[in-house]
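Q: Second attempt. The first request was missing the SMILES, so the protein and copper (II) ion are both included now.
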Amino acid sequence: MRTSAFFIAPTLAFSALALAAGPASADDGAASYSAVLAPVNNSGTSGQVMIHLAGDQATISMSVAGAPSTLMGMPYMHAQHIHIGGQGVCAGPAADADGDGVVSSLEGLPFEGPVGTSLTVEGDTSPASGAAAHLFPAGGAYDYSRTITLDAATIGAIQAGNAVAQVHGADPSLLSAAAQQKVNPMNPALPFATDVPIACGSVVASQMSGPLPRGGADTGVEGAQAVPETHSPLAAAGLLLLAAGATAGTALGWRRQF
Ligand SMILES: [Cu+2]
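A: Got both inputs this time. The predicted holo structure:
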């Protein structure tokens, strides 16, 4: 299965996948989860998240686009988290309790819950680093991949369907005048816009086993996606490659599977 499927993958993808995959691991009980990040607060930001969980090790791959690229002339670092223990859903516009035209992280708390894991690029991943701007990826469109240890609370929430993936960091010019005057409640040295959620999605169990739909323009790439079983680290690697290489067509192909 794996070998034959490899043959239909493009040569370049084959090489990269082979390098990324390594030997199949004996991660029985592993599972994959995903989230489609939809724009919130009229951000125009969207993306995808893939979480491959084996024991307490999670390989998390993300692709984000349509985010503001700079803040005050500097690369805009976007805080990103797994929120846990709320209702497992993203807050809607009605959650704007103070009427400033923005659903802030605090206002979203009853829906999304507090930060369970900070999806940093390096170092600490605890909630304590939730607003540590320098630890987060920067730019208007980026791919993220990191294997981290998840704590029991985050693992439990993901497995229970009560986890939400969220990206923060709005364009201040899109906020109301009232909101533009505020500071980030998690880090008062930063403007409120850095706290404002811009993309959000519920983390759900991912169905990646079995044949994938065909017929897209990039059937070779879709064939490559079909290689991994749900419990293979190849899955995350393949998705990451797609995210990194993505034409619009392959991005859509990815989205279709979730
Ligand atoms: Cu968050």
